[in-house]
Fold this sequence. Notes:
By secondary structure, the chain is of the alpha+beta class. The chain contains four helices and twelve strands. It has two domains: 4-123, no CATH class; 128-196, no CATH class.
Amino acid sequence: MEKRTILKINITSYIGSISAEHYYGSISRMESDEDLYVIAKNIRVLDFKSEADNKLYRVLGAEEAVYLNKKDGSKRGRWHEGDSTERFNEVNELKLHVFKTYPNCDVVFLRHDYLESIDMDVHQMIKSDSLDKTGKKIKIVKFGGFNPTVFANLINGSEHEIIETPERYKYEELMEGYWVMGIGEPVLILLEECKLIN
């Protein structure tokens, strides 16, 4: 197995003005050829390297700047379009930002230094062009998935190319369905959640 970059994102939260909860992410990284899920189980004792400024930042659009000024009660307009902030409004917003900013890295998300869920917080990024495609497609009709970061592209009416069962799942007993690419990870769409379109 070749070495990959693995990011550890520690998400913390703060209750701000008007009882609004804000989320922040600190980032550290390591290079490893070990199995990501083994690393995730031992993440608190492994040597991840932090950069000088290890905070996650995002750039504000015009609407968001207006929204933050209202939310903060700032009459002078502290926030402006193009400003950077380390504050995120939701955990899923922070996670999607990480996936877009670091598309080729494996990611383990912690909440206050604690891994809450292997299924929801450990993401082994797989390039879709590295997976075997079947030449068939499905259309999502009633998707019941509950991970808004990995499943963000799997919405009712969307069409997806079917891929072969990923190696990690080939010998597991799973419900019947079709594998497609979510955000950076393969996702099993159950038969009742889709229809075959070719």
